[in-house]
Design a protein that fits this description.
It is a single chain. The protein has 640 residues and is mainly alpha-helical. It folds into three domains: 119 residues, no CATH class; 60 residues, no CATH class; 432 residues, no CATH class. 59% of the residues lie in helices and 4% in strands. A four-stranded mixed β-sheet has the order 1-3-2-4. The radius of gyration is 28 Å and the shape is globular.
Length: 640
C-alpha cells in the first residue's frame, strides 16, 4: 500500500504532466483502519488486508519537488516550468534533510529507466512534509488581520445592539435642527460611524435597485459582464500551477472559440474608460467646487487636492488591505501544506514588497515582484486619479493650459507605448507576453489610453449633449464600427505570426480603438443613440452585482489559488469541468464579495460621505470607478 501511494510516472509528460503524486489519502490510511463496512456474504477477489491493513510504524506523506531538464517536454518559458512533483509515503520519523539526500542520491545513480529515456537530469529542490509551520499563527500579518477583524466585528456588533437608537437618529437625520440642538458633534460622528457598520442597512444598499434620476445605468451592466468574463480568465491563469496538461490549455487559447477568454485582460480597459468618464463628468459638473477652485489660492487648492487624494485612498484601501493580508497569509499556508510548488510565492513577495502596495506603486516595479499581482490595476487607478485630478485643478484655473497638458500627456502615452512595444519586439506569443508584462501590461504609462478616452467622453457628454446630433444612419454606422472594433480587438491574436511591425502596431492602436468603441457605448446610452444592447446593459438587476465588483475583482484570484492549492491531485484543462468549476467559483466569490462589501467597503464609503457633508451641504467627495452608478453615489462609493 505504501508503494501504491508513492510516486510513479504518469502519461502526458511531453505536454506538461509533472505530477507523480501517488495518493496522499492512501498513505494516510496506513495509520488507521479505513471505516469501510463490507459484508461477508459475497466472495471478493481482493486481498483480505487491503482495507484493514495498518503500518507497523507511523507513516507520513512527503512531496519532493525536483527540477528536470528533459528535452522531451514542451517548454513555453512561462512562469516556473519543468518541476516534477513526487509523492513519497515514508516512515514519519524520516527527516526532510534525509529524504532530500536519499532522493538526490537515487537520481544521481541513474537507475530509473524513465529518467534515462526522457533525459531528465533531475535536481531536488525541496522536500515538503505538508505540515503547517509552528509559528504560523504568530505571524505579524495573521495577528494584524485578526486585530482588524476583531475591531470590525465589534463595530458591527455595537451597530446591531444600538439598532433601535440608530434607527431613531436615521429617521430624523434630515432635520437640520438636530445639528443645532446637539451640543456634541462628536456624539453625532460616533452615531454615524456605527450606522455605517449596520449590516442590515448595507445589505439594503446593495440590493436596492432604486436609482437617482441622473444616472448611467449602463455602467452596471458593463461592469457585471466584464467582471464575469475576467473571472473565467482568472480561473485558467491561477490554476495553472496545478495543471497536468498546461500546454494543451495554451493550444486552446489560440483557437478562435476561446479568444474571448484568452484576450479577457483587455476588458480591464473598459473599467479604466468608465473611471475616466465618471471622473471628468463628476468633476466638471460640480459647479460649486469649480468656483471654489478658481477663487482659491495655491495653498488652499493644494489642501483641497490632498483631501481628495486622501479620501480616494481611504475609499479604496479597506478591502484592498484585507485582501493583501489574506494573500500573504494564504500564500504562507499553501507554501507549507500544498502538494504543489507555487509558481508565484505571494508570501515572499508580500513580505518583501508590502509597502509598494500600501502606496499603490507596485506596478512601477517588475511584474514578478508583485504582491497580489492582480492589484496592478488598482495601483493604476489610484495613480490615474491623482494625475488627472491635478490636471483638473489646472484646467479649472486655466482651461488652455489644462487642455494642453491633457493632450500632451495623451501624446506622450502614445509615444511611450510605441517605444516600449517596439523595444520588446512584440509578437502575440505567450513567452513574449510574459516577458514584456512589466512594460506592456502593468505599467501605468502603457495602460493609460482608455482613461484618456474616458475623460474625453465625459467632457463630451457634459458640454456637447445638446450639440451632438446624429441621424439614424450615422448612429448605426458608428454602432457597427464600435461592435466590429470590440470584436476585432477581442480576436486580434488569431493571426499569430504577422511579424513584429504589424503585431506592435496592432497592440498600440487596438487599445485606442477598443477604448473609443467602449466610450461610444457610454456616450450613445447617455445621448439617446442607444439600441437593444444598451437597453440590455442598463437593466436595473445588474445593480445587484455591480455594487460588489470591486470586492469581486480583488477576491476571485485569491479564492481560485487557495481552492486549487488545497487539492491533493492535479487539475486538468477540460471545457466541461472548467465551466462547472468557474460557475461555482463565480458564485462563491459573489457571496464573499457581499460579505467584504458590507463589512469593509460600504462602512468607509458612508463615513467618507458623512465627513464631506459635515463640511458642506454639497457632497464633494472624490469620484471613483463603478459599483454604484448614480452621479451622486459614484462620488462616494465606486470602483472596478
Amino acid at each position: 500500500t505504501a508503494i501504491d501511494a508513492s510516486a510513479k510516472p504518469n502519461s502526458g509528460f511531453i505536454w506538461g504532466n509533472n505530477f507523480w503524486l501517488g495518493s496522499k489519502e492512501g498513505c494516510e490510511s496506513l495509520n488507521e483502519e479505513l471505516s469501510i463496512t463490507l459484508s461477508s456474504r459475497y466472495p471478493r477477489i481482493m486481498k483480505s488486508l487491503l482495507v484493514n491493513a495498518v503500518a507497523p510504524f507511523p507513516v507520513q506523506y512527503f512531496v519532493a519537488h525536483v527540477r528536470h531538464k528533459s528535452p522531451w517536454q514542451v517548454e513555453v518559458k512561462f512562469l516556473e516550468e519543468n518541476i516534477l512533483h513526487l509523492g513519497l509515503c515514508l516512515p514519519k520519523s524520516c527527516q526532510t534533510s534525509e529524504i532530500y539526500n536519499l532522493t538526490q542520491t537515487f537520481f544521481d545513480a541513474r537507475q530509473d529507466d524513465y529518467q534515462i529515456f526522457y533525459e531528465l537530469e533531475p535536481e531536488v529542490i525541496e522536500i515538503k512534509n505538508l505540515e503547517l509551520g509552528e509559528n504560523f499563527i504568530w505571524k505579524k500579518s495573521v495577528l494584524m488581520l485578526l486585530t482588524i477583524l476583531a475591531i470590525t466585528g465589534v463595530l458591527h456588533f455595537l451597530s446591531y445592539l444600538l439598532k433601535d437608537n440608530l434607527d431613531i437618529f436615521a429617521e430624523n437625520k434630515q432635520d437640520e435642527r438636530i445639528l443645532e440642538q446637539t451640543s456634541s458633534k462628536q456624539s453625532i460622528s460616533k452615531t454615524h460611524i456605527l450606522t455605517s457598520f449596520s449590516i442590515e442597512k448595507n445589505l439594503q444598499t446593495i440590493f436596492n435597485t432604486n436609482l437617482d434620476r441622473e444616472i448611467f445605468p449602463i455602467i452596471g451592466g458593463l461592469k457585471t459582464i466584464c467582471s464575469l468574463i475576467i473571472v473565467v480568465f482568472h480561473v485558467q491563469w491561477y490554476k495553472f500551477f496545478t495543471l497536468d496538461n498546461p500546454y494543451i490549455m495554451f493550444h486552446d487559447g489560440e483557437q478562435v472559440r476561446y479568444q474571448w477568454i484568452a484576450n479577457a485582460p483587455i476588458l480591464v480597459d473598459i473599467f479604466f474608460t468608465i473611471s475616466g468618464f465618471l471622473l471628468a463628468y463628476n468633476y466638471l459638473k460640480n459647479v460649486k467646487q469649480n468656483a471654489l477652485i478658481r477663487q482659491n489660492s495655491l495653498w488652499a487648492n493644494t489642501k483641497m487636492f490632498l483631501k481628495l487624494v486622501v479620501k480616494r485612498y481611504v475609499r479604496l484601501t479597506p478591502v484592498y488591505l484585507i485582501v493583501n493580508f489574506l494573500t500573504e497569509i494564504s500564500g504562507s499556508y499553501l507554501a507549507d501544506v500544498s502538494v504543489f510548488r507555487l509558481h508565484e510565492r505571494t508570501d515572499l513577495t508580500c513580505q518583501q514588497h508590502w509597502w509598494r502596495n500600501v502606496f499603490y506603486i507596485q506596478n512601477l516595479f517588475e511584474h514578478v515582484e508583485l504582491c497580489a499581482n492582480w492589484t496592478w490595476s488598482t495601483a493604476c487607478e489610484m495613480q490615474y486619479f491623482v494625475f488627472f485630478t491635478l490636471i483638473y485643478f489646472i484646467y479649472v484655473k486655466n482651461e488652455q493650459i489644462g487642455r494642453t497638458l491633457f493632450l500632451g500627456a495623451a501624446g506622450s502615452a502614445l509615444t511611450i507605448t510605441s517605444y516600449l512595444t517596439f523595444k520588446h519586439r512584440f509578437e502575440p506569443a505567450f513567452d513574449i507576453l510574459w516577458d514584456s508584462g512589466t512594460d506592456l501590461y502593468i505599467s501605468p504609462l502603457t495602460r493609460a489610453t482608455p482613461y484618456f478616452v474616458g475623460i474625453a467622453a465625459g467632457y463630451l457628454v457634459l458640454h456637447y449633449r445638446d450639440k451632438f446630433v446624429l441621424n439614424k444612419t450615422q448612429s448605426q454606422l458608428i454602432w457597427c464600427t464600435a461592435i466590429l472594433s470590440i470584436a476585432g480587438c477581442m480576436h486580434a491574436t488569431i493571426w499569430r505570426s504577422p511579424g513584429i511591425f504589424i503585431s506592435s502596431m496592432t497592440l498600440i492602436y487596438a487599445r485606442w480603438l477598443f477604448a473609443f468603441a467602449n466610450a461610444w457605448v457610454l456616450i450613445s446610452s447617455t445621448m439617446g443613440y442607444g439600441n437593444f444592447l444598451t437597453r440590455f446593459l442598463s437593466n436595473k438587476y445588474f445593480i445587484y452585482f455591480s455594487r460588489t465588483t470591486y470586492s469581486f475583482y480583488l477576491i476571485n484570484p485569491l479564492l481560485i489559488t487557495f481552492i486549487y492549492g488545497l487539492t491533493n491531485g492535479p487539475s486538468h484543462s477540460d471545457t466541461a469541468m472548467g465551466i462547472l468549476v468557474t460557475v461555482g467559483i463565480a458564485f462563491l466569490t459573489y457571496v464573499l464579495s457581499i460579505v467584504f462589501s458590507i463589512s469593509f467597503e460600504m462602512p468607509y464609503c458612508k463615513i467618507l460621505g458623512f465627513l464631506s457633508q459635515s463640511k458642506s451641504k454639497s457632497v464633494m467627495s472624490s469620484p471613483s470607478i463603478p459599483p454604484i452608478t448614480s452621479t451622486k453615489e459614484v462620488l462616494k462609493c465606486d470602483y472596478i
